[in-house]
Amino acid sequence: MGANNEENYLMLSGIQHYQFCKRQWALIHIEQQWAENVKTLEGQFLHQKADQPFIKEKRGNKLIVRAMPIQSNELRISGVCDVVEFIKDDQGVELHGHEGRYVAHPVEYKRGKPKTNDADLLQLTAQAMCLEEMLLCDVTHGFMYYHEIKRRLEVAITDSYRNKVQSIVSEMHDYYARNHTPKVKIGSFCRNCSLQHICLPKLMNKESVESFIGRKIRE
Amino acid sequence: MKKLLNTLYVTQPDVYLALDGGNVVLLKDEERLGRLPLHNLESIISFGYTGASPALMGYCADHNISIVFLTMNGRFLARVVGESRGNVVLRKKQYRLSDNENSSAKVARNFIMGKVYNQKWMIERMTREHPLRIDVEQFKKISQHLSALMVDIHACEDLERLRGLEGQAAISYNRLFNQMILQQKEDFYFHHRSRRPPMDNVNTMLSFAYTLLANDTAAALETVGLDAYVGFLHRDRPGRASLALDVMEELRGIFADRFVLSLINRRVIGPLDFYKKENGAVLMTDEARKKFLEAWQNRKQEKITHPFLGERMSWGLAPHAQALLLARYLRGDLDQYPPFLWK
Ligand code: SF4
Question: What ipTM is given for this predicted complex?
Answer without folding.
Answer: 0.79
